[in-house]
Design brief:
single chain; 9 helices; globular; 4-stranded antiparallel β-sheet; 10% strand
């Protein structure tokens, strides 16, 4: 059984006191559930750095990762590089958007990754216009000081970032008992590699007990159309290595509790 360390939410509730009680009458929105199963900030960053040492396709760039709870409150933000500027600065907010999207459009019995939404939001798609809904709160996204970004005092922590992102890198989080408790978002490389690293990081956290999805094996894995058509839940292909790795994720890093 994997070991976990509690992540305190005291500071988060102090920042957004009016939001922390949102789940009091709804068991499916209990923010503390996520905190009880997450590793601490340093451990989460260490897991991300270890995954980046593996083959993930893409450009080999450093990454941002954001985790938020079922209420949409940001719980942690980390980056993989030595310094804050080692990864694209714009990817901090994108990672938060992805986490928010996966959480906002997944249910207890059905998960959608951000990669699954790409085709549906294109002109003529079944969800066209979704990307314009639920905008990022710029006050939360760009609060300062910038020197705190990616630290335990990142200004996004404890606040609702909002935002919709419809390319790979965002996944819903499910406990070993199947409870949907939030979302995770990765950004900093190609969309396919963002998805791969998000999948691996979620797996390492043992929060990938996905109940059902549109992807292969009834998961929320990225779907690549064999004939390059984009008309359902498909996502454009990236580099060949990333495509191969991504297609093998349900086998190499299977969803479900790690007992």
């Amino acid at each position: 059984m994997r070991a976990f360390y509690a992540f305190p939410l005291v500071a988060a509730c102090a920042v957004a006191a009016s939001s922390c009680g949102d789940g009091a009458t709804d068991p499916s929105l209990q923010a503390v559930t996520l905190a009880s199963v997450l590793p601490g900030h340093a451990a989460l960053r260490s897991k991300l750095r270890q995954i980046l040492e593996e083959k993930n396709g893409g450009l080999g760039f450093e990454m941002w990762a954001t985790i938020l709870d079922r209420n949409g409150l940001v719980v942690d933000v980390v980056f993989s590089g030595v310094n804050r500027g080692d990864q694209w600065p714009g990817s901090r907010v994108i990672s938060a958007q992805k986490a928010n999207t996966a959480n906002a459009f997944s249910l207890a019995g059905f998960a959608l990754s951000t990669a699954n939404l790409y085709a549906a939001v294109q002109p003529g798609g079944s969800l066209f216009g979704l990307q314009e809904s639920n905008p990022v709160n710029p006050v939360v996204a760009y609060a300062g000081p910038a020197s705190a970004y990616g630290s335990t005092s990142d200004p996004m922590i404890g606040r609702r970032i909002g935002g919709i992102n419809v390319f790979g890198g965002g996944l819903a989080l499910y406990t070993t008992t199947g409870n949907l408790i939030g979302g995770i978002g990765l950004s900093g490389d190609t969309a396919c590699t963002d998805h791969i690293i998000a999948w691996k990081l979620r797996h390492s956290l043992n929060l990938d007990n996905v109940p059902a999805g549109v992807g292969e094996g009834n998961t929320d894995n990225i779907i690549f159309s064999s004939d390059e058509t984009i008309n359902g839940f498909e996502h454009p292909k990236c580099d060949p290595e990333a495509v191969t790795i991504a297609e093998g994720l349900p086998t190499d890093f299977p969803v479900g509790p790690d007992e």
